[in-house]
Design a protein that fits this description.
246 residues, alpha/beta, Glucose Oxidase, domain 1, nine-stranded mixed sheet, two-stranded antiparallel sheet, 5 helices, 22% strand
Length: 246
């Protein structure tokens, strides 16, 4: 069977979804063939826009920046954890990850498929499942240093404030208070994963991971590449995430 490439990257578009409080994304013509003989876009976006990776510096100024990490941290054989079917804001525990972690080795990229990509572009996207600190610790203990998820964050995303009553009401309807991993956005999982020995990497806002899960179940090797823009002293950067199914 010939190898297959699968794009795991959301398109970068004006007004695309971003983490609450992050810079809005804007693409507009800077030069046009009509006026300058060439087409050039002007881009306004944050380092965490769209499908992106976090470097350790994202949560601690004393930890490595994006350009301080080896290229090997952004690619490797992938293991997909099937977390589909969880409730909104459900806690992802070590027990849920155990089958996938048993398959991981040094250099493995652990991908978490929650199915939450189906909510991309809607308010419900904020109510994704999230790792408990214990689950993050289990990932690090398994030797994994690169993690990806098809959701907005590996930690709970905070509920919108009073300025967003419609969104807050929708998320309140979706969320069972017993399913919430944390009351406040502590970024506890980020700190465990990114603070791992040698520095960890987190990829967020991946697209549909089902083709990778199906390939894994069929015994096909899965490799993933998450190479970021080469930004200097950055906390993270957008990536073109691509999987290769052997």
């Amino acid at each position: 069977m010939a190898a297959t490439l699968v794009d795991l990257t959301h398109q970068v578009t004006t007004a695309m979804p971003v983490y609450p409080g992050d810079p809005a994304v804007l693409l507009e013509p800077a030069l046009t063939t009509a006026t300058a003989g060439v087409n050039v876009l002007a881009l306004h976006l944050g380092s965490q826009s769209g499908t992106h990776v976090d470097a350790p510096y994202h949560v601690d100024v004393t930890w490595p920046t994006l350009d301080g990490l080896p290229l090997e941290r952004f690619t490797g054989p992938a293991v997909v954890a099937d977390l589909r079917g969880l409730e909104p804001r459900a806690a992802v525990t070590p027990e849920l990850l155990a089958p996938a972690l048993e398959r991981c080795g040094e250099g493995s990229v652990l991908l978490l498929t929650t199915g939450w990509v189906r909510h991309w572009g809607t308010e419900a996207y904020l109510a994704h499942p999230a790792l408990t600190p214990a689950a993050a610790e289990a990932i690090v203990a398994a030797g994994v240093r690169t993690i990806g998820v098809d959701a907005l964050s590996v930690d709970p995303t905070p509920d919108p404030g009073p300025g967003d009553p419609a969104v807050a009401a929708l998320l309140a309807d979706l969320t069972d208070e017993h399913d919430q991993p944390a009351e406040e956005p502590t970024l506890a999982a980020h700190r465990v994963l990114l603070g791992a020995s040698g520095g960890g990497v987190i990829a967020e806002n991946l697209t549909d991971l089902r083709p990778l899960l199906e390939a894994q179940e069929a015994g096909r090797p899965v490799e993933v590449s998450l190479f970021p823009l080469r930004l200097v002293a950055a906390d993270g950067a957008p990536v073109r995430a691509v999987a290769r199914l052997g």
